[in-house]
Amino acid sequence: MALFTIQLTRRIRVVLVFLLSLIIAGNCFAQEPANWYNTDSLLQRLATNKKYKALLKDAAIIYAKANIDSSAISLQAFEVAYLEKKLIDNKQVKMKGLRYYKNRRILAVVDYTRPGNKKRMATIDLVRRKLLHDDLVTQGAGTGNKKNDKYTLPVFFSNALGSESSSLGMVLTTAGTHPDNPCHLCRYLLLRRHDDVVVLDGLEKGINDRLKERDVVIHTTGSLNYGTDSLRRLLKIKDTLYRMLPDSCKCFVSKEDGSVKCVSAYATDCGIADNAGFMGQSNGCLVLPEEDHIEMMDIVKNGSLIFIYSNVINGNTNYFKDSPIIRKMVKLAGVGNKPKPKKEKR
Known about the structure:
There is one protein chain. The chain contains 11 helices and 17 strands. With 346 residues, it is of the alpha+beta class. It has helices spanning 2-26, 28-31, 39-46, 50-65, 75-89, 182-189, 228-234, 269-274, 294-300, 319-322, 324-333; strands at residues 106-111, 121-125, 130-135, 139-140, 142-143, 146-147, 169-177, 197-202, 217-220, 242-244, 251-254, 260-262, 281-282, 286-288, 305-309, 313-314, 317-318. The longest helix is centred in the first third of the chain and has 25 residues, at 2-26. The strands form 5 sheets. It has an 8-stranded mixed β-sheet. Strands 10-11-12 form a 3-stranded antiparallel β-sheet, with no helix packed on it. It has a two-stranded parallel sheet with strand order 4-13. A hairpin with a 4-residue loop joins strand 2 (121-125) and strand 3 (130-135). The protein has one domain: L,D-transpeptidase catalytic domain-like (Beta Barrel), CATH 2.40.440.
């Protein structure tokens, strides 16, 4: 009976959250800034260079062959990521940290021009032209008057300490580490031993080079100490008669009167369902769904490139103006980098 009540309550909550998301989405364009960098214009000008035209053709073929969902990862995001990777592979841009770059056939793309209920993180094998994994991923929440909303597109990005925002641009994965939460370790150890925190190293100075200093990593809820004790404190449970329900969404039930208290970790299946299919927000980390994180982390750890994309122009954020890789690319192609801003997002 208690479990039925939990499920019914959760369904009501999901409906209310979904209705709230529709209201917020209706105000989405009013909240977002008017200007977006015209990525199409840049790509068209790059295509006037014979070499870049060939690379863009290759990117489009891989994108199509891999059957990448355009509603989750835009062609523009993938094309920019592919061009930047080729620049790095050909040693045409100097960057610190590339000695750890080993996994050259893999490219991961995060597209923040897509909402949080889309699988906007994709990992592609460029040699086999195959989509290896795609999944939901969080966005940085931001702070103060620069806060994002999980139901709308993120418009605030930062490299600053304490910003709690996502950073854009090309980053490199380094070592994976094992979970420090015994509950998570026990839960997944029966499946297989695995790393569930992947350390990131930002490659672009002034854009994302403070990731390690900010402790921005790839992880999931449960990996960074979201165990039973912390849940009990969150729910203010002191009564020792409460026991965790094994088949529920982080719920505790009292043996004495059957009363139930629940909380959902935001990246669990239950937490995502409670938020109408949207992931929660992070302090800048790339957080993956708890029930589907092992394969993605195994693929990208230890020397893979991840490109984090948005073409928003907002305050100090204009990746295409500030990125040292983009500036080098434009210089080598012999084209300008001053397209007119767009009024609509891409």
